[in-house]
Amino acid sequence: MASNSILDIELHLRKIKHLFFDPELDPFENERLQISGIEEAVNFLRTKKRIESKIRLNIFLPLEQIDSNLQQKTADALSRYCDFKIALIQRQLEIERTEGKRAVMIGLIFAALCLLMLAVVSILGPLSDTMFVIFCGFFTILIWMAIWNPAEAFLYGLPPYKLEIRAYRALKDAEIVIKKEI
């Protein structure tokens, strides 16, 4: 995608408030949108590997919902909302990162204790080769268990937060176009 291209996102809303709030669920209506417009846009942007283009948010509303300054009010509200969500997600990311660091420390201490136990067993007692292999296997499994949670936190726990922040940053400066629903 060229950096000067525009990525269009179309949202068909019954009311402008549905940009930020989930619409009421009505199984008798044929509408496909059951989440807020912003969540639909963020979910769409999460699927993109890169967001290098400018975003244009095309919001389709019934004619009676549109007034002369709705476009500017919506752009201001979107900017404030994205700032709030970015700050909130960054706090959550920092909490997860801190918990991950704590898990690394606990995992390293536990792994060191397991290695110490293996060293003590090999130095102290005349174990049969079979028993020593069983002890080695047991402590190897415990070491893997000790480092699995920290590895999972950093490899799989943090990237979703980063993707969400990236999506909200892209939406923050999106061009807003209000159109009449046909």
Give a quick rundown of the structure.
This protein is mainly alpha-helical and 182 residues long. The protein is built from 4 helices and 3 strands, in the order βαβαααβ.
Explained architecture:
The chain has 182 residues and is mainly alpha-helical. The protein folds into two domains: 6-81 and 172-180, no CATH class; 92-162. Helix content is 59%, strand content 12%. The chain is built from four helices and three strands; from the N terminus they run βαβαααβ. The chain has helices spanning 37-46, 70-124, 129-157, 159-172; strands at 6-12, 54-61, 175-180. Strands 1-2-3 form a three-stranded parallel β-sheet, with helices on one face. Helix 1 (37-46) packs across helix 4, helix 2 (70-124) runs antiparallel to helix 3 (129-157) and helix 2 (70-124) runs antiparallel to helix 4 (159-172). It is elongated, with a radius of gyration of 26 Å.
List keywords for this structure.
2 domains, 3-stranded parallel beta sheet, 59% helix, 3 strands, 182 residues, mainly alpha
What's the tally of helices? 4
Give the oligomeric state. single chain
Give the number of domains.
2
User: In percent, how much strand structure appears in the residues?
Assistant: 5-15%
Q: Helix coverage percent of residues?
A: 55-70%
Strand order, main sheet: write it out. 1-2-3
* Class inferred from helices and paired strands: mainly alpha
Describe the largest sheet.
Answer: 3 strands, parallel
- Weakly predicted, low-confidence segments: none
